[in-house]
C-alpha cells in the first residue's frame, strides 16, 4: 500500500531546480510511457527540459518510491507540501535563498526539509566544500527556528543523477544522520515517514 505525499522543490535561479525535478522523475519512474514517446518525438533529452514539457502537456509530475506515491506541487502553489526540497549549489548558497520569496515561504512553512547540495561534480566532490556549505545551511535553518535533527543535506549532481538512488563512489566520505551515504531516496523515505 502506498501513502500519498506531496513535495515542493524550491531554490533560487541557476541552482538546477528543474534538472533536479527531471532527475527525480526519471530515476523514480515518474514519466509515463506515452509521455516518454512525446519526449523522444520532441527531442527532450535533458533533465532540465522535463518540468516545462510536462507543464505544457498538463501532466502532474508524480513518482513512486517504496511506501509512497509522491506528487510534486508547483512551487508557487498555496498548498502546503508534506516535505520541502531546497535545491542549492555551493556557488549560490543562502544569500540567494533569502532573495527568493517562494523558497523562503516554503522553508518557513515546512517541518520536513531536504537540502540537495547540487553541482558537487563541479567541485570535484570536495568534502571540505560540502562541510563548509552544510555548516552555513544548518546555521541558517537554526536562525529560522527550525529543528535540524530531521533535515537531510545530500550532496548530488542532478545532471548525472549521483546520489539519487544509489550511493556515488565520488562521495564515499558522506555520512548523514549517522547513516553512511544517504541518497535522495533514503532522505525522502525517512523524512516522509
TrEMBL record:
InterPro entries: P-loop_NTPase (IPR027417), T_Tr_GTP-bd_dom (IPR000795), TRAFAC_GTPase_members (IPR050100). GO terms for molecular function: GTP binding; GTPase activity. It comes from the Eukaryota. The keyword Nucleotide-binding applies. Keywords: GTP-binding, Nucleotide-binding. Pfam families: GTP_EFTU (PF00009). The keyword GTP-binding applies. Residues 5-190 form the Tr-type G domain. This is 6689d4d0-6500-41ea-af89-43ecc96925d5.
Amino acid at each position: 500500500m502506498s501513502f500519498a505525499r506531496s513535495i515542493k522543490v524550491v531554490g533560487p535561479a541557476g541552482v538546477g531546480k528543474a534538472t533536479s525535478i527531471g532527475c527525480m522523475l526519471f530515476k523514480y519512474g515518474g514519466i509515463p510511457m506515452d509521455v516518454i514517446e512525446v519526449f523522444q518525438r520532441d527531442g527532450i533529452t535533458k533533465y532540465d527540459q522535463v518540468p516545462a514539457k510536462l507543464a505544457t502537456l498538463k501532466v502532474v509530475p508524480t513518482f513512486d518510491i517504496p511506501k509512497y506515491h509522491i506528487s510534486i506541487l508547483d512551487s508557487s502553489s498555496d498548498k502546503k507540501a508534506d516535505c520541502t526540497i531546497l535545491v542549492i549549489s555551493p556557488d549560490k548558497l543562502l544569500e540567494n535563498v533569502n532573495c527568493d520569496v517562494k523558497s523562503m515561504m516554503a522553508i518557513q512553512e515546512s517541518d520536513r526539509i531536504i537540502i540537495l547540495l547540487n553541482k558537487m561534480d563541479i567541485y570535484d566532490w570536495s568534502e571540505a566544500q560540502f562541510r563548509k556549505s552544510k555548516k552555513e545551511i544548518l546555521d541558517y535553518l537554526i536562525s529560522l527556528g527550525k529543528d535540524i535533527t530531521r533535515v537531510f543535506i545530500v550532496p548530488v549532481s542532478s545532471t548525472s543523477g549521483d546520489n539519487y538512488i544509489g550511493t556515488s563512489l565520488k562521495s564515499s566520505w558522506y555520512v548523514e544522520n549517522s547513516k553512511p551515504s544517504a541518497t535522495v531516496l533514503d532522505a525522502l523515505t525517512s523524512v516522509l515517514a
